[in-house]
Amino acid sequence: MPSYTPPTRDMQFVLHDVLRISQTDTPGYAELDPEFTSAVLDEAGRLASEVLAPLNTVGDTEGCRLENGVVRTPEGFREAFEQVKAGGWPGIDLPEEFGGQNMPYIMGTAVGEMFSGANQAFTMYQGLTHGAASAILAHGTDAQKATYLPRMTACDWTGTMNLTEPHCGTDLGLMRTKAEPRDDGSYAITGQKIFISSGEHDMAENIIHLVLAKIPGGPEGIKGVSLFIVPKFLVNEDGSLGARNGVSCGKIEEKMGIHGNATCVMNYDGATGYLLGEMHKGMRAMFTMMNEARIGVGMQGLAQAEIAYQNALAYARDRLQGRAVTGAENPDGPADPLIVHPDIRRSLMDQKSFIEGARAFLLCGSQMIDQSHRGKDAQAEGMVSLLTPVIKGFLTDEGFDMTILAQQIYGGHGYIEEWGMSQYARDARIAMIYEGANGVQALDLVGRKLAQDGGKHVMAFFETVKTFLKENEDNEALRADFLDPLKAASKDLQQAGMFFMQNGMKNPNAALAGSYDFMHLFGHVCLGLMWAHMGKACHEALGNGTTDRAFHEAKLATGRYYMARRLPATKMHLARIESGADTVMALTADQF
Amino acid sequence: MPSYTPPTRDMQFVLHDVLRISQTDTPGYAELDPEFTSAVLDEAGRLASEVLAPLNTVGDTEGCRLENGVVRTPEGFREAFEQVKAGGWPGIDLPEEFGGQNMPYIMGTAVGEMFSGANQAFTMYQGLTHGAASAILAHGTDAQKATYLPRMTACDWTGTMNLTEPHCGTDLGLMRTKAEPRDDGSYAITGQKIFISSGEHDMAENIIHLVLAKIPGGPEGIKGVSLFIVPKFLVNEDGSLGARNGVSCGKIEEKMGIHGNATCVMNYDGATGYLLGEMHKGMRAMFTMMNEARIGVGMQGLAQAEIAYQNALAYARDRLQGRAVTGAENPDGPADPLIVHPDIRRSLMDQKSFIEGARAFLLCGSQMIDQSHRGKDAQAEGMVSLLTPVIKGFLTDEGFDMTILAQQIYGGHGYIEEWGMSQYARDARIAMIYEGANGVQALDLVGRKLAQDGGKHVMAFFETVKTFLKENEDNEALRADFLDPLKAASKDLQQAGMFFMQNGMKNPNAALAGSYDFMHLFGHVCLGLMWAHMGKACHEALGNGTTDRAFHEAKLATGRYYMARRLPATKMHLARIESGADTVMALTADQF
C-alpha cells in the first residue's frame, strides 16, 4: 500500500532557515514562528497522511458516479470532508470576518501541498471553493460576500469555475453561453460548460458556480464576457436554501486520472445568475481565481512528485535486486537493495533535487503573494505575476516527469495499479493541462509577462540573481558548487531574453517558437537560485553547529546535484530558442 | 474517433531512397523492389487501419476478463486474429519450411510498426508468439521444431515468455521456479511467474509457454537457469492436443494500459516441461527472444508516437482557437486552427522529427539483423548488439514523451478517455518497462556493450559517422544543416565514451551514473546520422527531379528541425555524464 509522510521538516527548513519568514516585515508573518508553523503543519500533515492518503486509491478505483442527476463521491470522501471542515482547513487563509483563520497565503500553500500530495482529486473540492471564494471576496458586493463567503469559507457550500465550452477552451472569446438580463437585476444563464471540476457532488449543501457568459448586445469576443454567480440552490434572504436553480450535471467524464473528482458537463437552462464584478469585465474577475489557481496547480505538480518519490524511495530501499558494482552492500542477503545502483540513484536524485527546489520556489512565490496582497507591495505583485506561468508550467511538467521516474523504479510493479504508482502519474498528468495548458503558460510568459510594465519585472528578477551573486562572491564554500552554475544559467536566460528582444519585434514567431523552452529555462534558473539560497542556509547552519547535521549535509549534497546535473539543461533550451522560428514554421499545414 | 493512417509512403522512402535495400547484397533483399514492398505494406496497412485500429479503444475499455480459469479477450479480437492469421502475417519472416513467408526481418519490422501502432495490446499476442518461435527455431531439436513451429508460425498456437517472479525481475538469478527431471526425459515445472503477457486467452488452440526454471542441484544463481517448453495442452505424437498441462492463470493484472492484452500470473504445478537448448544455459536461449523482443519494443515506442501524432495533427488542423500572431490565417472563420501557433508547431515538429528519424533508425537496425542472420555478417551482428539497448531505451522513452506531447495538443480533451489520446500515453508507458526496464538497457549499453569485443563495435560506429562526414564534406547543401550538427553531436558522444574509459576503470560508478544519459546521447547521434542520410537522399531526389517534391522538401525541413532543435540535447547529456558519480552517490541510503 502506498503511504504518505508529510514533508514538514523540509517545509520548516524553507520557512525558517531560508525565507526566515517570522523575521520579515511581511504583514502577518511576525506570528509565524517555528513553533506555531510546526504545530499547524503537523496537524495538517496528520490529517493528510491518516485521513486523506488512505482514500486516494479508493477515489481512483471507485471514481464518481452520476445517478439521476446526483453525483456520488467515492466511499469515505464525505466523512473525510467533514474532518477537513471541522479542522477549519478550507478557510485557513481566508478572512476572519467570514469565518476564516486569516493566516498568510504561505501557510495555505504548505498545507495545500500536503493535502494535494495525499489526495489530489479529493483536495480539488476545497481548492475550487477557495478559488471561487477569492473571486467573490475581490469582486463581490457586500451583500454577495455576506451571502456566500461564510458558507464557502466553511466549505458547507463548495465552488466551481465555469469557463470551457465544447468548442472553446483557451479562446474564450468564442463562448456561446448567454446571460439575459431580467427585470429583477438577475440574469437568465443558458448554455453548456464542460470540464467543470467538482461541478456536482454529494459533499456540500449547495454549490456556487462562477460562470462566464455573454450578455446579448455586448462587445464581440472576450470583451463581452461577464462573470456570474449561479448557485445550485437559490439562497433566500435569511440565508436558507430555496428553490433548485436551472443548472444540472449532464454527464461526468471518464478521465485518465483524478477519478475521485467529478469532472462535469454542466447545463444551464435559464438558470438564475447574479453579476459578479463589472459587466463585460468577467475575464478580469476570473483571473483573480485563475492566478491563484495556477499557483495551486503548480503546487499539485510538486505534490504528486513528492508522494511518488516517497514511495519509490521506500521501494528502492526495500527491493533486493542485483549487486552493487563496487561490491556487495548486503552480503548476507540474496541481493542488494535497488538503491545501491547508480542509475537508481540518478533517478532518485533527479526527483529529490527537483522536489526540494520546487518547494522552496513555491513557498517563496507564496511569500510574494502575501507581500502583494497583505503588504500592497507592487514590486512583489509584478514579480509573482511574472513567475506565475513558470510556477504553473515548469512545476507541472517536471512534476509529471518525476512521477514517471518514480514509477519506473518499480519496474513492472509500477505499471500495475496495485502499487499505486500509476495513479500518481495519471493524476499528475492533468496539472499540465488545466488552468491554462502549459503551452498557454509559455505564451503568457513570453507574449505578455516579459514585456509587462516595460519589462521591469524580468529586469528585477535578473537584479535579484545578480545581487545574490554579488553579496556572496566571497563565499568560497558556495562558489564552485552553487554560484558559478547559477551565474552561467542566469546568463543563458538573459541571452534568451535578448534573443527575443532582438528578433521578436520583427518576427513574433521567433519569440513564440522559443516560448516553451524559455519557460523551462526560466524554471531551472529559479530552482538554481533557490538551491543557492538553500546552500547558503545550510552552510550557515553547519557553521553554527546545527543539531541536525545529517539533514543539512543531505540538503547540500542534493543542491550540488541539482546544480551539476539539472541546471545544464539551460544550455539546451537556449540552443533551441536561438535556432529561431525558421525550422519551426517551415512546413505548410498540408506538408505535415 | 481516433484513426490510423499507415505510414507506407515514409517507409518506402526509407527502404528505397535511403537504405536502397533492393540494391544491397543482403541475402533476400534483391526481391524487395519498390513494387513488392509497396504491395506488402499496403496490404498490411489496410489490415492495420481497417481491422486492428477500430478495436484499439474496445480493447482498452473492455479489457480482458478471467472467468473460471479462462481469459476472455475483448469483443472482436478473435475475429481480427483470424484475419491476421489468414493473411499469413504472423509468419511473415519465419522459414517457409514451417509455413512462413521467409521475408527478411526488415519487412517484419515495417509491418509490425503498423500493427502495433494500430493496436499494441492486440499485436502483442502475435509478437510474443514470434519471439517464442524464434527461440525454438534457434535452440530447439528437430522434433521440437516440427512439433511446435508450424502451428506457432500460423498462430494457431501462441507463445509466451516466462521470466519474472514476484521477488525477481531483472535479477533472475534469484528465481525459485524449479524443474525436476522425470524418468521420461521431461521435467516437472513448479513455481509462479508473473507479468506474463498473453499468458492465457481465448484466441488460440494451445499456448506454448517458454519458462525459465532451475534444475535442483545445478549451479547457483543465473548459471543454474534452464529454459523449458511448457505447452498449455500436451501435444500427442500425431500433433493432436492431449491432456491439459499443470499450468493455469491465477490472476490477470489491472494495469495502466494495454488492457486488451492479458497480463497473467501463471502458476506451474508440476507441469510437464521439455528442456529447450542446453541445460543451465537458459539465459542464452532466452536472450535469442529478448534481443529480438527489445527491438520490437523499441518499435512500439515509435508506433505509439506515430498514431498519437497523427491524431494530434488532425486535431491541430481542425480545432479553431485563437489567431495567428502574424495575422489571421482563417479570416472567414471564428478563429484560426491550432496549427498556426508556433508552440503547437514546436510540439508537432518534435514529434514528427522524432518519428521519422526513429523509423529510419529502426529499419536500418533491422537491416543489420538481416545482414547478421541471413548474411552471417559478424560486424553487423556486433553493431546491432551494441545498438539494441539504444533502440529499446531511447525509442521508448522518446516515444512516450511524444505521446504526452500529442495528448497535450488536445488540452482537456486529451485527458478524457473519449478522444483516445490518453490510451496512447498509457499504452506507450509499458514499453519503457518491459523486456528490461530502460535503466537496465542503459546498464547493458555502458556496462557490457561498449566494451564488447574490445570496444570494436562502438569504434566501428564512430567510423561509420566519420566516413559519412568525410564522404560528404564537399556537399554544400548538407554541411550547415546536417553535417556540422552531426559532427558536433558525435564529438559529444566520443567525449562521453572517453570520460567512461578514463574514469570507469577506477570507479565503475563514474560510468554507470552516466549510463542513462549516454543511452540518450547515443540515441540522438543515431537519429542525427539517420537524418543526415535522409537529407542527402532528399537532395539527390530533388536534384533528380523527383515527382514528389512536396514530400522531399517537407522531409528536409523536418530533418533541419531535428538537427537544430533536438540534437543540442547531446550537450546537456554530456554535461551530466562529465559531472561524474560524486553528486549521484553522495547520500547514504538513510539520508534520502
What integer is the average pLDDT of chain A? 97
Q: Name the chain pair with the biggest interface and residue counts per chain.
A: A-B, 95 and 95 residues
Form type of chain A: globular
The quaternary organization reads as homodimer
Largest sheet of chain A: 7 strands, mixed
Main structural class of chain A: alpha+beta
Q: Determine the strand fraction of chain A and express it as a percent band.
A: 5-15%
Provide a compact summary of the structure:
The structure is a homodimer of 592-residue chains. Chain A is built from 20 helices and eleven strands. By secondary structure, the first copy, chain A, is of the alpha+beta class.
Provide structural commentary.
The structure is a homodimer of 592-residue chains. Chain A is an alpha+beta fold and 592 residues long. Among the domains of chain A are: 8-139, Butyryl-Coa Dehydrogenase, subunit A, domain 1 (Orthogonal Bundle), CATH 1.10.540; 159-281, Butyryl-CoA Dehydrogenase, subunit A, domain 2 (Beta Barrel), CATH 2.40.110.20; 453-585. In chain A, 57% of the residues lie in helices and 12% in strands. Chain A is built from 20 helices and 11 strands. Chain A has helices spanning 8-18, 34-52, 54-62, 77-86, 105-118, 120-139, 142-153, 282-318, 342-373, 378-409, 412-415, 421-431, 438-449, 452-471, 476-504, 508-512, 515-543, 549-566, 569-578, 582-585, and strands spanning 65-67, 70-72, 157-162, 178-181, 187-197, 206-214, 225-231, 233-235, 241-244, 247-252, 263-275. In chain A, the strands form 3 sheets. In chain A, strands 3, 4, 5, 6, 7, 10 and 11 form a 7-stranded mixed β-sheet that branches. In chain A, helix 1 (8-18) packs across helix 9, helix 6 (120-139) runs antiparallel to helix 7 (142-153) and helix 9 (342-373) crosses helix 17. The longest helix of chain A has 37 residues, at 282-318. Chain A is globular, with a radius of gyration of 24 Å. The mean pLDDT of chain A is 97. At the A-B interface, helix 9, helix 10, helix 11, helix 12 and helix 13 of A face helix 9, helix 10, helix 11, helix 12 and helix 13 of B.
